[in-house]
Amino acid sequence: MSTGGSTRAASRTTSGQAPAPRLAAPSRAAGLVVALVVLVAIALLSIAVGARSIPLGTVVDALFHRDGSDSSYVVWSIRVPRTLIGIAVGASLGVAGALMQALTRNPLADPGLLGINAGAATAAALSVGVLGVTDLRVFVWFAFLGAAIAGFVLYVIAGRGGSSPVRLALAGTAVSAALTGLTQVMTLLDTQTLDQMRFWTVGSLERADGGTLVRVLPFLVAGVVLALFLARPLNALALGDEAGKSLGAHLGRTRGLTLLAVTLLAGAATAAVGPLVFVGLAVPHMVRAITGPDQRWVLPYCALLAPALLLLADVLGRVIAREEIDVGVVTALLGAPLFIALVRRTKAARS
Amino acid sequence: MTRTLTKTRAAPRTAARRSVLVCVGLAVAILGFGVLALGTGSISVAPLDVVRTLLGNGSRITNFAVLDLRLPRVLIALAVGAALGMSGAVFQSLSRNPLGSPDIIGFNYGATTGGLLIILLFGGGTLAVSGGALAGGLVTAIAVYLLAWQRGVRGSRLVLVGIGISAILQAINFYLIVNAQIADVARATVWLTGSLNNLGWSQFWPLVIALVVLIPLLLAGASRLDMLEMGDDAAAALGVRVERSRVYLLIVGTAACAIATAAAGPIAFVSLTAPQLAKRLTRAAGAGILPAAWMGALLVLVADFAAQRVAGASTLPVGVATAALGGAYLGWLLWRRR
Fold first, then answer.
1. Extended beta strands in chain B, E state
2. Which of A50-64, A244-258, B128-142 holds the top average pLDDT?
3. Any idea which GO molecular function terms this record carries (chain A) (predicted)?
4. Coil, strand or helix: which one is B45?
5. CB within 8 Å of B323: residues ≥ 6 apart
6. Quick check: is B4 in a domain?
7. What percent of chain B has pLDDT over 70?
8. A14-18, A89-93, A221-225: range with lowest mean pLDDT
9. Tell me: the pLDDT tens digits for A278-312?
10. Which of B160, B174, B330 sits opposite A174 (nearest CB)?
11. ipTM of the complex
């Protein structure tokens, strides 16, 4: 988590100079195991901590012996689904953020910050308010549609040369502001929509259950797998369009598939828990500090460490205040200072 | 921008004349639309009777409908719109980016947090809420400025830091609302969308007094703003004290945004669109504070008129209409600037 490393990662994406990876290949593989252990540890913490805290020993016991006891009930019916949703959503947003930063060559890219998550939320709100959709299985498709449209708009803006981090971030903020306004119209016109959308406007793991997980998981897995296949062509594109082409990467196809992966990941994650900001921003920076810029390492590390961060934020929200603080609020409070630190260190913001 | 700059340098007098013409044209449009807004509603008053009532020769019923019921709302719409337009012109010029308006980079979120804190924690009255919003906006501006400082402040860094701060403020606003008493939340939610409902003369006068103080301060900064827009080095060469001017403009620009937010809540997109639309009409270089003020006033007036009538019985907050108008405009702007 060295901040000096994230500086280098940030300047790499803007100036094109790749730093040497911090770790050699065997230790990068070992690091991946460490990341997995960290994730498992935080997942256990997330199962143990809450309105009714359960000792870790009892948690492990309840996980292996599903009996009728109170602890077993709390663990299996509330904490485990919530933790699994957190892992799935966190992995998706982390990978989506890494993909977007690679695609736009912009260190400040994040599906929440650039309005992709807001696009998904707005489309889903419209489907609830206008079409009366209540089934997650149906409105996840609207979330995809919204994420895809927002992603396409952003890509069109960023696609033509000369898109600076400022331009992209502003365009994303502006697009999300317009979309949030649209969601507001729906909720003001129809209180029933308001009621359904309320937990969504901020992003919360509280209402997500096992059913939610089952319904969005196929899309999330598809997105992550697609992302792993994109690692190599994205590495080629990182050298610039011309160099990438000469290395045999198909520019159009790689960009199209990357947008598709981002849409799947951000759309399904938003459908499950609402729009979250900054999860996809922070983790790729920390990861690049460990692994260097090679996407074949960046993506799997992100898939393990982003959920760890999201679960940690969720646990923090449960313990720091008497009333639970939604995870979307915590990620914003944690992510924004990091964003500002990145802004202060990024060369691109000095233009 | 370079194109318009050179054009203006070639013929400054024509451009100035054009700006005056645009302001006059917008004022005429405001008068016409104002008469329409004052005359329509559940009690219908003919345009000529509206004018007669305004001049003091109305019947009792037209006096009630036009002067008591609708005039304060129309005047508040104009004042709020003008303040937002001017604030947007200052910020877009400071950040040298047409998207760098206070509603995008988060200064009105700061004002909102200030107002919300007063409503939710202290249950304060209108004046206290206004004070809270003003304080919130100014504290935000100072924080953003300090965080963006690195041997001077660049427009782009100011904008990006503003985006980060606005994310924090939005999170705080959300947390405040979720954990408040339901009666306060209802009041706060309406205010949060930006609404002119239930506003009267008692909200109008503080707003006007604030504007009377602010407009000369804004206009005094306008020439320095135009020079800053050419670049820091060029401005310094012309004798402008760059950082001091930037702080001054940031403060008066934030104050304009905050007093509008204090009166009516954060009305989205007016400060983004008004200066840009005005600029397209005047084709002048520089910030164009006055044309932006007229344009902002017209936009809020029209948006409020539409919001009151579009949804049948329920009166939508004006912020909803400006968000819809602004969203469409924004799409076009982004498309054009690809």
1. none
2. B128-142
3. transmembrane transporter activity
4. coil
5. A177, A178, A180, A181, A182, A184, A185, B268, B269
6. no
7. 92
8. A14-18
9. 888 888 988 888 888 899 999 999 999 999 999 99
10. B330
11. 0.78
> In the predicted model, is pLDDT for residue A49 greater than 90?
no
For residue B334, pLDDT over 80 is answered with: no
Residues of chain B with C-beta less than 8 angstroms from the C-beta of A170: 97, 99-100, 104-105, 159, 163
**Token pair recorded at residue B169:** 């403020």
Least confident window among A240-254, A320-334, B93-107, B265-279: A240-254
In this structure, are residues A293 and A65 in contact, taking their beta carbons and an 8 Å threshold? Answer: no
The chain A residue lying nearest B267, using CA atoms, is A181
Cα nearest neighbour of B272 on chain A: A174
**Model confidence pLDDT, tens digit, residues A176-214:** 877 877 777 776 666 666 666 666 666 778 777 778 888
In the predicted model, what is the mean pLDDT of residues B295-310?
A: 89
- Whole-prediction pTM value? 0.81
DSSP secondary structure letter of residue A111: T
A270 Cβ contact partners less than 8 Å away, ≥ 6 residues apart:
A117, A120, A121, A124, A143, A147, A276
Question: Is residue B177 situated within a structural domain?
Answer: yes
Which CATH number fits the domain that encloses residue A208? 1.10.3470.10
Spatial separation of the C-alpha atoms in residues A234 and A222, rounded to whole Å: 18
For residues A345 and A181, what is the distance between their CA atoms, to the nearest angstrom?
32
- Which of B159, B161, B311 is closest, CB to CB, to A170? B159
In order of A39, A204, A316, A333, B198, the CA distances from A325 in angstroms are 22, 9, 8, 11, 33
**Using CA atoms, how far apart are residues A103 and A266, in angstroms rounded to an integer?**
15
Q: What angle do CA B157, B161, B164 make, to 5 degrees?
A: 150
List, in order, residues 6 or more apart from B147 with CB less than 8 Å away.
Answer: A340, A344, B161, B165
Q: Does the pLDDT value for residue A328 go beyond 80?
A: yes
Mean of pLDDT values over B76-91: 94
| Mean of all residue pLDDT scores within chain B | 83
* Residue B157 neighbours by CB under 8 Å, 6+ apart: A343, A344, A349, A350, B148, B150
3-state secondary structure (DSSP) of residue B265: coil
Give residues with Cβ within 8 angstroms of A341, minimum separation 6: A3
Provide the domain count of chain A: 1
**What residues of B are in contact with residue A344 (Cβ under 8 Å)?**
147-148, 150, 157, 161
Domain containing B198: what range? 13-336
User: Could you tell me the sign of the dihedral formed by the alpha carbons of A60, A63, A64, A69, in that order?
Assistant: positive
Residue B89 inside a domain? The answer is yes
- What's the CATH code of the domain at B22? 1.10.3470.10
Number of structural domains chain B divides into: 1
Residue B127 φ then ψ, to 5°: -65, -40
Residue A280 lies in a domain: yes
Mean local confidence (pLDDT), B147-165: 82
Chain A residues inside the 8 Å CB shell of B337: 157
Is the CA virtual torsion B44, B50, B54, B59 positive or negative?
negative
The answer to whether position B2 is within a domain reads no
User: What is the number of CB-based contacts under 8 A between chain A and chain B?
Assistant: 143
The answer to whether residues B272 and B326 touch, using CB atoms and an 8 Å cutoff, is yes
In angstroms, how far is CA B149 from the centroid of its own chain?
Answer: 26
Would you call A179 and B269 a contact, using CB atoms and an 8 Å cutoff?
no
